[in-house]
Design goal:
eight-stranded parallel barrel; two-stranded antiparallel sheet; 13% strand; alpha/beta
């Protein structure tokens, strides 16, 4: 039974919005979502974006696997004009799991095939791909790297949660080494090499990823890191600045430089009383953090993110995807949910408050930079009413592009559904069951990671994997 989402109409959601004091808006006029938008020197044909979502289905050498090709062909046919390709590790040691994709000279032909097949599927279903932008997210997983963490700074709230040795379960301690300044400098070349390859195989944009407490995001908030990459704002943004400058100089002018960036980190939560999420113990002022006050850890503080977005624009970044939180530490911030995964906590707040947090933060950025191609997050929780929320936000100038994540897995053709029928197919609407998250967290697979998708609405691809994972959780219980 749904605990929160019992809404049968927009009117029901508007009544809840008034009760909660949130600022959620809805419009039945979906026309704003189908207007083109300039993205740097390019144009996207509508305001819909497929968010970057890892399938965890690459081959051991980093090449995309069969399900990877299938996923992007489905996304291509779906009708969204901005497809944000998933996390691609810039080095093998930067992978978040052993099935994360890696672009290098050996895997390059496989990535070229992804681009070719995605674009062909888009042309087949939508007539033209001249206004389709397909990009790739370049990532370094930092403290969440496989097989061992690569941390930028010691964090008193994250270190006790970070597994240093997966065999023993030992956590990061005060003597665990930090990535050095020289190692960071060498990583710039890895980002450049990946960006060049991405451009060569036909991606329209490259994302220098700065979110979810991975390496670049951790550096943004690393107030206690010594040396040139920590401490002051100028130092904390230095590495991302060096990467962006180098990437912009290395790729052709028609290739857009983008970033998916946290607007708010937040502190970790754990399962508390009645299984509800409860904040981890923390001391004030906070030692580290991005987009958050040192003395008010639950409040979004956009002072530094707004400043950094302005500076990135001057460096040549013309596409920004706004997100927040850490999927390992407080998933309710990043993706408000109705049902937690089996090993997760119940939402400690009404999920609509989480949606509102996303919308308000993104609206503040869009207000500061009205012409920025800014992608918003938080829409999937609204289920069949997400188009009306997106239309209202675009209409009101609160966002320029609407990003959809989990809901794309259950209904990859959602844009075509809207074009053809004016509404989503209710039988395939994502109900935020968190099955996809549960699959992603399951590691007892021969390749070290289960492939991730939507078992309820894509049984053909993920039904057997979900049965296996269910059995794993039964055994644990």
């Amino acid at each position: 039974m749904a605990k929160f989402f019992k809404y049968k109409s927009v009117a029901d959601l508007e009544a809840e919005n008034a009760r909660l004091g949130t600022d959620l808006r809805f419009s039945d006029d979906l026309a704003p979502l189908f207007r083109p938008i300039a993205v740097g020197p390019r144009t996207a044909g509508n305001r819909w974006c497929v968010h970057p979502m890892e399938g965890c289905d690459g081959e051991p050498d980093g090449a995309p696997g069969p399900l990877t090709f299938r996923r992007y062909a489905r996304f291509g046919a779906g009708g969204a004009k901005l497809i944000w390709g998933e996390a691609c590790a810039v080095t093998p040691g930067a992978r978040a799991n052993p099935r994360q994709i890696v672009l290098n000279p050996n895997t390059k032909p496989h990535f070229a095939r992804i681009v070719e097949e995605c674009r062909a599927a888009h042309r087949g279903a939508n007539g033209t791909d001249s206004d389709l932008l397909f990009g790739l997210q370049l990532t370094h997983s930092g403290r969440y790297s496989h097989p061992h963490p690569i941390i930028a700074t010691h964090d008193p709230v994250l270190d006790p949660r970070t597994v240093a040795n997966k065999a023993t379960g030992e956590k990061v301690t005060a003597d665990y080494p930090l990535i050095t300044d020289d190692e960071l400098k060498r990583l710039v070349d890895d980002y450049v090499a990946n960006a060049k390859l991405a451009a060569e195989v036909g991606f329209d944009f490259v994302d220098v990823k700065q979110c979810h407490r991975y390496l670049l995001n951790e550096l943004l908030g690393a107030r206690n890191r010594p040396g040139p990459y920590g401490g002051s704002y100028e130092n904390r943004t230095r590495f991302a600045r060096e990467v962006i400058q180098a990437v912009r100089a290395a790729v052709p002018a028609h290739v857009v430089v983008a970033t998916r960036m946290n607007l708010f980190d937040g502190i970790p939560f754990h399962k508390g009383e009645d299984d509800a999420g409860a904040p981890d113990a923390h001391a004030l002022p906070l030692v580290n953090g991005w987009g958050m006050s040192e003395t008010e850890p639950f409040a979004v503080d956009l002072t530094e993110p707004l400043r950094w977005i302005g500076e990135m624009r001057a460096l040549g970044v013309t596409l920004v995807n706004a997100t927040m939180g850490n999927p390992y530490a407080q998933p309710h911030y990043g993706r408000p949910f109705e049902y937690p995964p089996p090993d997760g906590y119940e939402s400690p707040e009404h999920p609509l408050i989480g949606v509102d947090r996303h919308f308000r933060a993104a609206a503040a950025v869009q207000s500061a930079y009205p012409d920025l191609a800014l992608v918003g997050t938080g829409y999937s929780y609204l289920q069949e009413f997400l188009p009306q929320a997106g239309a209202a936000n675009v209409r009101d100038g609160r966002i320029n592009i609407v990003g959809v994540g989990r809901a794309t897995l259950s209904q990859p053709d959602w844009v075509r559904q809207l074009l053809d029928t004016g509404k989503l197919d209710r039988k395939r609407v994502c109900r935020t069951f968190s099955y996809c998250t549960a699959l992603m967290r399951a590691k007892q697979h021969p390749l070290g990671q289960y492939e991730t998708g939507c078992p309820p609405f894509d049984k053909e691809a993920y039904g057997d994997a979900w049965k296996d994972v269910q059995q794993l959780h039964v055994k644990k219980a």
